[in-house]
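Q: what sequence does this backbone want?
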């Protein structure tokens, strides 16, 4: 974590570097102005004490806390807590390096000046974006319109099922007799007939379903929306009437008997905040995009270079003739006398 915080200093303190670079010496003060400034400085020092210093370089509380707030939200808790001293040490190191760089005239270096200008533009751009962000207000009525226009996206059902898996199904249970597709379908049809005739769906799910997770709960799948189930299952569930047991449905997992318990929509109150944010972000983006007019590119610069030409194929050297094998003398056989 220490390394992460240290790395972030280079980013977080970029803004501080701009402020330092743009500081100008004040004009020569009159005696009266000096006295007033001294009184003001004393008051400020008491209200805004120096929290860390080294030699002539000091950092006041307000400056330090402003720098802390430049960190991403996920790191601020650490930096405001156990990492506070580490952050202060990194900040002080940056200030000391900057002060030394000023003495060496590095703030006048063309490359540094160019980078500072870019950083300044980035800060101003972010400030403008924040201004646009605050100016865009989405009312509850606006969110309600978006909800009504896309209500199908919030359609949901509550259902239960019994699954009879066939051989090769991802849901097939080890140690249980494997069924062919025809056998699995016949078994599912038999179970459905029992349910339609008044059989207990819950008990049959616990006893027969190869989806052991939902089966242990009487086949309960809970509430789900569109796009959360395989297409065949989803269509059957959303097309069914409340209380209805669907015809047997085949999916890659096997044959399902589905019972629909509830069919409704996610209440507006539950999605209002996300709708407001979504509409707000869309409107902000539209305002930013509207700034781009007649954008043109220098195609000569942006055209990707042609792919590198593959090296010329080298001629495959002809194989060297194999050395001639020396004649091997056959052993002389000696007949036994």
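A:
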């Amino acid at each position: 974590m220490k390394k992460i915080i240290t790395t972030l200093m280079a980013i977080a303190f970029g803004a501080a570097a701009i402020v330092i670079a743009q500081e100008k010496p004040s004009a020569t003060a009159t005696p009266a102005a000096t006295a007033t400034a001294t009184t003001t400085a004393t008051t400020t020092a008491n209200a805004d004490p120096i929290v860390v210093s080294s030699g002539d370089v000091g950092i006041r509380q307000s400056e330090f806390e402003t720098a802390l707030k430049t960190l991403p939200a996920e790191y601020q808790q650490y930096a405001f807590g156990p990492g506070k001293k580490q952050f202060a040490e990194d900040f002080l190191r940056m200030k000391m390096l900057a002060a030394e760089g000023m003495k060496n005239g590095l703030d006048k270096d063309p490359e540094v000046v160019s980078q500072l200008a870019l950083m300044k533009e980035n800060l101003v751009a972010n400030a403008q974006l924040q201004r646009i962000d605050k100016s865009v207000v989405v009312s509850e009525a606006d969110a309600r319109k978006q909800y009504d226009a896309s209500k199908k996206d919030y359609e949901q059902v509550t259902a239960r099922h019994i699954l009879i898996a066939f051989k090769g199904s991802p849901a097939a249970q080890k140690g249980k007799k494997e069924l062919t597709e025809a056998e699995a379908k016949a078994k599912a049809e038999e179970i459905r007939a029992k349910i339609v005739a008044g059989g207990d769906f819950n008990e049959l799910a616990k006893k027969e379903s190869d989806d052991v997770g939902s089966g242990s709960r009487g086949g309960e799948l809970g509430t789900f929306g569109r796009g959360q189930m395989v297409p065949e299952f989803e269509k059957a569930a959303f097309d069914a009437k409340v209380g209805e047991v669907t015809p047997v449905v085949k999916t890659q997992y096997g044959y399902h008997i589905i019972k629909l318990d509830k069919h409704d929509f996610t209440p507006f109150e539950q999605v209002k905040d996300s709708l407001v944010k979504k509409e707000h972000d869309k409107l902000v983006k539209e305002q930013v995009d509207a700034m781009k007019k007649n954008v043109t590119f220098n195609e000569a610069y942006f055209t990707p270079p042609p792919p590198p030409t593959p090296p010329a194929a080298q001629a495959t050297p002809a194989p060297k003739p194999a050395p001639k094998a020396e004649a091997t003398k056959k052993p002389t056989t000696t007949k036994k006398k």
